[in-house]
Amino acid sequence: MTHHKHPPIARRTLGNYARVEFSFVGTTCERIDGWLSEWGQTLATEMKVLTVTGDHGTSLPGRKSQHGSKLFETSDRWNDFDDKLLGSQYDLALINGNHYPGAAQIVFIDGKKASTLKRRKDQLTNVFTIVLCPGEKTIPAWLKKHVGEDPIVYQFSEWLKRGLTILRNYAVARLPTVKALILTGGKSTRMGKDKASLVYRNGENEAKRLARICEEKGLKTYFSVSEATGQENEINDRFVDLGPMGAIASAFMADPESAWLVLACDLPLVAEKTVGQLLAQRDPSRLATAIRGASQPFPEPLIALYEPRAYGRLLQFLSIGHACPRKVLINSDVKEIVLEDEAPLTNANTPAERAGVLALLEQGIDGAPPL
């Protein structure tokens, strides 16, 4: 038997910072920092963007941040793991490669910075494209030899026109895919029966019905379970007695690269329409996209789509003694989809509530065929 000193946990695929990152190297810092500022702000309307550059000789004491009128300043020490902890919250990192390396490089041929580029030869590990700055005609022989295969080459004027779109399309294509998590590990104490096994319509129990809806939407679907049974499509709860919060964190522990659409089995009026709304109106730049009833003050955490950055946020809340996913959503950057028809938010946690749902279904509520 192979002995493992530490339990197996899936790791996110990150560069020095984020999952997708580009360093701009070989031209002036003025140009590079201009792109980082302008393009970073433009792309931030669709995704979370981090920019990294040098201090250019200006040193700030400690670390400063501001929330409203409250100003924080700390003297925290920082290392490469802190870079990744910060970067893991972002979809794209744009880096001034004259100062710091990135997982992929956009290389500029610029006589003014020729020596800077050559000094950073060892950092050119994954050249995405080469840009010939004004007046430059050829790629240096040493760079051709170093890169090997023929890279894509742009003239500077063409890069100015197309660069932002190229980076955007590349990053959007690599936004996290969505998987579904059906919560079936609850104790169902109030109902007296396993809520996931209850049948409300068409002979399907709730676990199978919700899974079918998700699979018809093209989502690979998993069941959260309190005890493993050996089924391939189950995720064992690794946070004992922490309820839905533990189940969601366990899903991210199994696959931290994906976004997770979470559905509970005590909401039997959730139908294809609601799941379709979540997927169609997903905002990957937020921590999550969640349903909220028009008359309700807070979003529903168990009809919600959590982005990978939610993983760390969930664990942070657990670390300060909060195991309520709704509290996480209320206090985070979340997109809310407001439902005027609040039927999908109807809970069935007790026999009386189940009877009420069955009565609604007999009337054909929410487009469902009458029983």
TrEMBL record:
Source species, domain of life: Bacteria
A Pfam family per the record: NTP_transf_3
Keyword Ribosomal protein: no
Record-linked SUPFAM superfamilies: Nucleotide-diphospho-sugar transferases (SSF53448)
Domain MobA-like NTP transferase intervals: 180-328
Keyword set includes Ribonucleoprotein: no
Keywords from the UniProt entry: Cytoplasm, GTP-binding, Magnesium, Metal-binding, Molybdenum cofactor biosynthesis, Nucleotide-binding, Transferase
Protein name: Molybdopterin-guanine dinucleotide biosynthesis protein A
Organism: Neolewinella antarctica
